[in-house]
Amino acid sequence: MGSMDGVALAKAVRKAGGTMQIVFVTGYSDYIAEGYDVEALNYLMKPVDAAKLFDVLDKAVARMRRDSRCLDLQCAEGLMRIPLADIRYLDVRRNYVTVHADRDYTVKRPLGEFEAELGDGFCQVGRAMIVNLRRIRCVGRSSVQLTDGTTPPLPRRAYEPLNRTIIDQTRLRMAGSRPAGCRKAVPGWTGQNAKEGHDVVPWARQGRQGHRGISARAGRHALPRGREHVPSDAHVAA
User: Fold this and answer.
1) What sections of the sequence does the record tag as coiled-coil (predicted)?
2) pTM surpassing 0.85?
3) DSSP labels for 157-222?
4) What is residue 202's DSSP assignment?
5) What H or E segment, with its residue span, contains residue 183?
6) Are 113 and 13 within one domain?
7) Which domain holds residue 92?
8) With CB atoms counted within 10 Å of each terminal CB, which end of the chain scores lower, N or C?
9) How many domains does the chain contain in total?
10) Are residues 22 and 85 in the same domain?
11) Which bin fits 219, alpha (ψ -120 to 50), beta or left (φ > 0)?
12) Mean pLDDT lowest among 84-88, 106-110, 192-196
């Protein structure tokens, strides 16, 4: 790897896309936070317990099988199979749905038909968009920033329910559970975020206890006090 360390390599791998599972094995705990930026499956400290290692590998295989699922679209050029992990979001205009993945695919189908095919990991936001939760970097009041830098607009009143969905999904993953089907960000949920006026919840950093300084310097806010605490094994992604 030359002068490149493991964190830099992981970022390069994740930037290239794909469904590769990343597990850090190290004797240092200084870079655990960086694992959130690359969606690492786990962060194992040396010496590594064999039972723990095999458990993580089993989870990696299960996630790879899940991420290998595809969305089948009947387009003008024929049947297209799009890996779910490559899909960033879907939006609808009039009677046409555009699937934004490695490129854009537009088909004439109701947005609701995609819910069962996409399953967990996706969330319908309002009536006109479904977003891949794993592709969200941060949520703003009027738009959501994805990991590739695109910023699709958020429907009115979708900010709070989308935040709640992301938090709930993270807790379910940590507990080893999986939500059934495509999630829905339903307008009307209000919580401490609204009361304290926070503008953005960094998706990649929301599980870190007490993480306020970095987010503040970057012009973003961490979760309000009372929602930032997670179990001590928060770096383990189920």
Assistant:
1) none
2) no
3) T-HHHHHHHHHHHHHHHHTT----S-EEE-TT---HHHHHT---EEGGGTTSTT--HHHHHTT---
4) E
5) strand 183-185
6) no
7) 80-217
8) N
9) 2
10) no
11) left
12) 192-196
